[in-house]
Write a structure and sequence with these properties.
Layout (H helix, E strand, L loop, with lengths): L12 E4 L6 H14 L4 E5 L12 E4 L8 H8 L5 E5 L8 H19 L4 E5 L1 H4 L2 H4 L9 E6 L7 H6 L2 E5 L15 E4 L8
Parallel strand pairs: 1-6, 1-7, 2-4, 2-5, 3-4, 5-6, 7-8
């Protein structure tokens, strides 16, 4: 494996691999490094386990059986030192992309106004990022976007083209999906994920 180097607030990443390949480990390591460097982060996910939503230095909104309120998360992000995790597990599967799109639009507006959040990490990105939401991706160029997915082929083309680095977790030979030939593929060991 190799070390992952990227420039926060400029580079975006796609972390992909089969279930159990180490995507979550890579994401958590990158997130902890960004938080340690005082970057404000927003994690969007749908975790059925409450354990995943407990992160040091991150305020959690939403539970497996309680939907998050968008205004609560946005109010928390008004504080520069507050990072948030937004768990959409309690929402119906078909409404999660709608909520995520509204959230991303609000995060763009917040970033336009105050320059934060610095990073948005979307776990299971193929479940949340629609073609409509992806059309606003160019406006997110000053925010580090980290898309984690086991199904990168389901992501909108605009999202895949917006990333500067693809990280293939696990053994790329065993990957159950083809990665685009036009993008650089980098196989890494989860323990070597670092910010530059």
């Amino acid at each position: 494996g190799k070390e992952i180097g990227f420039a926060p607030c400029r580079d975006s990443l796609l972390i992909c691999g089969a279930r159990g390949a180490g995507k979550s480990t890579i994401c958590e390591q990158l997130l902890q490094q960004l938080l340690a460097q005082s970057y404000q982060c927003c994690v969007i996910e749908a975790e059925m386990s409450s354990a995943q939503s407990v992160r040091s230095g991150v305020t959690a909104f939403g539970e497996p059986h309680e939907a998050p309120r968008l205004t609560d998360a946005l109010n928390a992000l008004e504080q520069p030192s507050t990072s948030v995790s937004i768990n959409l597990a309690a929402l119906a599967v078909e409404t999660r992309p709608i909520f995520a799109e509204a959230l991303i639009l609000q995060l763009q507006a917040l970033h336009d106004r105050v320059g934060r959040p610095h990073c948005i990490l979307i776990n299971q990105a193929h479940s949340f990022v629609t073609r409509e939401a992806a059309s606003s991706t160019p406006r997110l160029s000053e925010i580090t976007m980290i898309y984690a997915t086991s199904e990168p082929q389901l992501l909108p083309t605009q999202v895949v083209r917006s990333v500067r680095l693809i990280v293939a977790a696990g053994d790329p030979v065993d990957a159950p999906f083809p990665l685009s030939g036009e993008l650089r593929e980098l196989a890494v060991e989860p323990a070597q994920a670092t910010t530059a």
